[in-house]
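hey so u asked for the seq, here:
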Amino acid sequence: EVQLVESGGGLVQPGGSLRLSCAASGFTFSNYAMSWVRQAPGKGLEWVSVISGGGVTSYADSVKGRFTISRDNAKNTVYLRMNSLKPEDTAVYYCKVIIGMTGHWGQGTQVTVSS
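ran it, structure tokens below
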């Protein structure tokens, strides 16, 4: 069974930093690209970033230069380092993997950026 468990969210002031983690199990982690997706209050899902099994990365324009995605294939974990956080980054952050034709999601972790 595929499982994704996010952690690391919380309340942070504007300009602050957080690191999110997503621990994966139930599949061969190093073979799959991993994504971060967020949902702000009252809004739809927004793709944030993706990292391939080999470490190639891509970012949404809204987070480019501020967020860094990384992975540790030995620990079956993907990370999202978020710097220079803004109030508009407030959202529930989900990690996601697509295996075959099926998308698998974690339960999400809340990030709130507020003074």
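The longest strand covers residues 91-99. The chain is about 0% helix and 55% strand.
lmk if thats what u needed
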